[in-house]
Amino acid sequence: MVTKETTVKISQWLLDEIEKFINTNKRNKTNYPSKRNFVDRAIIKQLEDEGINLKEK
Predict the structure, then answer these.
(1) What's the pTM?
(2) Which of 6, 12, 19, 49 has a CA between 20 and 30 Å from the CA of residue 34?
């Protein structure tokens, strides 16, 4: 799969909330090793919930 990176601006408030969530417990730190990973996974989940097929053809 070819990936292309795009920079996206996120409010400082949202970044702070994501960091608080990740640091809540060790399980969150394991599941989301970075804020970027958290955002990527949240977007993928939202798209899949909307019925968009993200599986590689």
Answers:
(1) 0.77
(2) 49
